[in-house]
Specification:
Length: 454
């Protein structure tokens, strides 16, 4: 009896110690399924892509960058992902932690660098928000190295302000050096390279009573004969902005322009996203496929600007407001002023475009920016044709026919920037000819093509 009791006591003391050990050997493994932001470091340069995974336990599949199929394996805390870029084989090997995934990757069997992945935010607001943002800093470069001024979600509306091209605010206080200082950058959650950012300009209002401009014509706008006969004597001009009457009146105008006035037509000269990781920061006085200093006078209240995303979050900048600007910005400056801005954003996933686009209630406008007028025209013409084919389901022949009779070309800025536009009313005509169309877009007319010379 004594021996059996001792054995029983031993069993009672051992059993409780065994139970926790058994639980720790079978941890719950979180699924890797869902959307991730994959960051690869190549030659010291990090670049990011959207990573979509499905997880059936040990086997993983999905896509990266929207067009590359991926397969992989997972064993406890280890993960391996494989896919092709062109003819090269990529293998990503690493660990899974509470913070995400990370490790090293190889190309054709050779270690090439490091990688990491984090889940996309899941705290999207239940409904779109109205956000007020008062900027305290302004930037003269388009860069991804600047910390976001505000993180926003698609559908959000933002009310903010801009200083003028010379750096003065609505109180005529110098806030920053001139050269088109911009407000931002705004980080748009969910925007990734390979997407398009849509910026809807909902409201533009001048917020002070004056604007500045110049009295000369830029060299590109005149012949050598005209320039030799008319010496370039630049003078600053000042305009009074009458918000109530919605007119701009030239102050102290020359003899034949006493009380000369023009209607106010507010616009944004600069709307841009940050350049790709492979490109250097861009001066805000320059422009390209990321937008920038387009000085296109149709970027105004009621228009939507479409820009290709090059960085996670897009990093949106905007500013360089003009009370009025004619085509070409022939004086070198428009009526430069500060402005109250209200805009919203949306993300069009997996819809890559080659050049900026603008759309309003009347026109589709493709913007071409290049080192020559001919090249800018080609870019804008090709971009508008692509727009008609991919979103309105027109064949090459059909797009060419419509363009030939309904498009127009303008020079918004004399720095090799051209835009070609197509009136939306043209769509009604071809839709009538097609009868039932597979086009799923709203049944509104199509607008003209626009080309920019910057």
């Amino acid at each position: 009896m004594r021996i059996r009791l001792a054995q029983a006591l031993i069993l009672l003391t051992i059993c409780p110690a065994i139970q926790p050990v058994a639980r720790s050997q079978a941890p719950t493994i979180e699924s890797l399924a869902g959307e991730w932001q994959l960051t690869t470091v190549e030659m010291g340069i990090p670049y990011s892509e959207r990573l979509l995974l499905t997880d059936s336990g040990a086997d993983i599949s999905g896509s990266v960058g929207g067009d590359k199929s991926i397969k992989g394996k997972r064993e406890r805390g280890d993960v391996r992902l494989e896919f092709k870029r062109g003819s090269e084989d990529y293998a990503y090997v690493g660990k899974v932690t509470k913070m995400g995934m990370s490790g090293s990757y190889s190309v054709n069997g050779q270690i090439a660098g490091a990688w990491s992945a984090k889940r996309e935010p899941s705290d999207k607001p239940g409904s779109p928000r109205m956000l007020d943002f008062i900027p305290t800093q302004f930037y003269r470069q388009l860069s991804a190295d600047v910390a976001p001024a505000l993180r926003i979600w698609p559908g959000d509306t933002i009310r903010t302000k801009s200083v003028d091209a010379g750096g003065e605010d609505e109180k005529s206080v110098k806030r920053v050096e001139g050269g088109n200082p911009l407000t931002g950058p705004f980080y748009v959650e969910g925007a990734m390279p390979g997407d398009v950012l849509a910026i809807v300009i909902k409201r533009l209002r001048v917020n002070r009573d004056w604007a500045g401009s110049d009295s000369g014509l830029v060299d590109r706008a005149t012949t050598t004969d005209y320039a030799s006969e008319n010496k370039r004597e630049w003078k600053n001009t000042r305009w009074h902005l009458d918000a109530e009457k919605q007119i701009a009146v030239l102050e102290n105008g020359p003899e034949h322009l006493r009380n000369f006035s023009v209607p106010i037509r507010p616009m944004l000269g600069c709307v841009a996203v940050a350049p790709s990781p492979w490109d250097s920061p861009v001066d805000t006085r320059d422009s390209g496929d990321l937008g920038g200093n387009m000085d296109f006078n149709e970027i105004r209240e009621g228009s939507t600007v479409f820009l290709p995303v090059r960085q996670p979050g897009a990093l949106l900048y905007l500013g360089d407001a003009h009370a009025v600007q004619g085509d070409g910005e022939l004086n070198g400056n428009a009526l430069e002023t500060s402005m109250d801005i209200e805009f919203s954003v949306d993300v069009q996933r997996g819809k890559n475009i080659a050049s900026p686009r603008v759309e309003d209630s009347e026109y589709l406008m493709a913007v071409g920016l290049s080192g020559s007028l001919d090249d800018a025209f080609r870019v804008a013409t090709s971009e508008l044709a692509s727009w008609l084919r991919t979103e309105y389901n027109l064949s090459r022949e059909e797009a060419a026919i419509v363009r030939g009779v309904r498009s127009s070309t303008r020079l918004p800025r004399l720095q090799i920037e051209t835009w070609v536009s197509l009136p939306k009313s043209a769509r009604a005509a071809w839709h009538h000819c097609h009868g039932s169309s597979s086009d799923s877009r709203p049944k509104s007319p199509i607008n003209a093509q626009t080309v920019h010379v910057k």
